[in-house]
Automatic annotation (TrEMBL):
Organism: Struthidea cinerea
Location in the cell: Cytoplasm
Protein name, entry field: DI3L2 exonuclease
Keywords: Cytoplasm, Exonuclease, Hydrolase, Magnesium, Metal-binding, Nuclease, RNA-binding
PANTHER family: DIS3-LIKE EXONUCLEASE 2, RIBONUCLEASE
Gene Ontology CC terms: P-body
Length: 216
């Protein structure tokens, strides 16, 4: 099998010298080559036949390898901006383990968008008869907002914001999408409506048409 060797270079390398580091990498490559050879001999004794593979470039310094032989790695160091609204549409259901302490306090929220994690929501946020009749809400869409996600938990914690209505209907589905993307779809305030023409029916004046480009 192909072996990819990753090396991380930092200020310590400069202090000890690149020659020392290169010697260490060369020794590691030799050890891996020996291990691979011994495994090949053992497989041959056992009667396992392998197809001969073309060897890759023999380079002691990984930095000199072509890009196609390297696997770049990285890690997240800081979150600059939270793009997601932390709101999602989905369904609620009872937890599977009825004997657990968590069953008495929380329900499970399953988002429609599978990129969003499942969420524990308080039973206090759920409808009053949800525990006794959970099947009545199996097709009801809810809006849930994630408030926390602990590092040692597979599920996030959140709060149910509102019930949207029956899944599959246009109004609940549309409202859910708008809420997820943080679109303000509330009614315009009286101050905004006062900016509109009050004398109806309103028409564009000839003078206004003369200085505008008609894109109708």
């Amino acid at each position: 099998p192909d072996v990819i060797i990753e090396a991380q270079f930092d200020d310590n390398d400069a202090e000890h010298g690149q020659d020392h580091l290169q010697d260490m990498l060369t020794d590691d490559i030799k050890k891996l080559s020996l291990d691979t050879g011994e495994k090949g001999k053992a497989a041959g004794v056992a009667g396992v036949h392998r197809a001969k593979q073309d060897d890759g470039p023999k380079v002691s310094d990984p930095r000199l390898l072509p890009d196609e032989f390297l696997q770049r790695t990285a890690k997240v160091v800081y979150i600059l901006e939270k793009k997601h609204s932390r709101a999602a549409t989905g369904f609620i259901k009872l937890l599977a383990d009825r004997n657990s302490e968590l069953f008495k306090r929380c329900a499970m929220f399953s988002p429609v968008d599978h990129r969003v994690p499942r969420v524990y929501v308080p039973l206090a946020d759920c409808p009053p008869d949800f525990v006794t009749k959970p099947e009545a809400y199996s097709q009801t869409l809810f809006i849930c907002r994630i408030v926390d996600w602990k590092e040692d938990s597979n599920f996030a914690s959140g709060q149910l914001c509102k019930s949207l209505g029956q899944a599959g209907e246009i109004e609940p589905e549309s409202e859910g999408i708008l809420t997820e993307y943080g679109v303000d779809f509330s009614d315009f305030s009286p101050e905004v409506l006062e900016c509109l023409p009050q004398n109806l029916p309103w028409v564009i004046s000839p003078g206004e048409l003369a200085k505008r480009r008609d894109l109708r």
